[in-house]
Design a protein that fits this description.
Number of helices: 11
Strand order of the largest sheet: 3-2-1-4-5-6-7-8
Order of helices and strands: EHEHHEEHEHEEHEHHHHH
Radius of gyration: 18 Å
CATH class of the largest domain: Alpha Beta
Distance between the termini: 34 Å
Shape: globular
Largest sheet: 8 strands, mixed
Number of strands: 8
Bound molecules: nicotinamide-adenine-dinucleotide
Number of domains: 2
Low-confidence stretches: none
Strand content: 5-15%
CATH topology of the largest domain: Rossmann fold
Mean pLDDT: 95
Structural class: alpha/beta
Helix content: 40-55%
Amino acid sequence: MSHATPPPTPSRTVGVVGAGTMGVGVAHCLAAAGHEVIVVDPVPEALDSAPARLNAGLRMAALLRRGPADGAERTVARVRFGSDLTELRTASFVIECARESIPVKQEVFRSLNAVLPPATVIATCTSAIPVGLLAEHVDEPGRVLGMHFMNPAYAKDSVEMIRGEQTDEQTLADAHDLLGSMGKQGIVVGDAPGFVSNRLSHGTYNDAAGVVQAGTADAATVDRLFQECFGHAMGPLRTADLIGLDTVVDTLHVLHDLTGEARFAPCALLTDLVAAGRLGRKSGQGFHAYASARR
Ligand SMILES: NC(=O)c1ccc[n+]([C@@H]2O[C@H](COP(=O)([O-])OP(=O)(O)OC[C@H]3O[C@@H](n4cnc5c(N)ncnc54)[C@H](O)[C@@H]3O)[C@@H](O)[C@H]2O)c1
């Protein structure tokens, strides 16, 4: 069965905030579905490397037979990049994929509130921040929800969708429609730190790093056990490398701060790797070594 993105249906203009791993990944899926996409990031280095990362993602998608129906070139032509949130004024839907930090995202939400028409839906791709903590920074909290795409976004059939206490039905319906246009389904859960997926997964990444730190096994062995004995497609440390160890640590901090649970305090090995610039796949080295760095 082919998993190619369905042919473009009537398109809309969708804004993406953040040109990192997820911003580019989500833009790829939107543009492949025929939507016009505007990606905004204030960091020049992120914008400089984004087109190459978009193209690399499209090449991988094609290899996995998940390429866009009307080709990579047309898909790329539908994505433009900018540095100012005011460029999102014409978007009818915005997906926020900025760095995992409560103050950074709250500031982005305040800016989006000032820039966007009141009917524009604002989705956050946060890993762990409750949607309600962001929705309280806009005048119409009903238009805010969580759309937790996972990485690589083009390879995933479903998205964890977070319904905030104030998220309204129209917002959920609009998000389901947008996902449907990308050939994806939304799995709706309630609002809580880490929702369902990351409350469960990030404690495991942290524990797995702790096992390596204690010297019980090296990273390759931990991952092998998950793959060969549990039957997982990927072990927890290779998964953490894929996410980005900086993002994993940021997410653990959010979970720790909001739940107070000690198991979410990032272990020293994780914070040491991040301090050493070993961020995982995107830097070429994390728990494992990779052939090429993202930037
Ligand atoms: N990497 C993953 O596997 C993954 C999966 C699901 C969700 N997420 C979440 O997606 C979000 C983005 O993660 P990522 O992995 O792409 O991180 P990343 O570090 O690759 O990218 C983050 C981007 O945010 C930008 N940024 C920083 N401040 C900003 C601002 N004020 N406005 C706009 N952009 C800003 C940075 O320049 C950077 O390009 C985070 O909330 C993360 O938790 C990540």
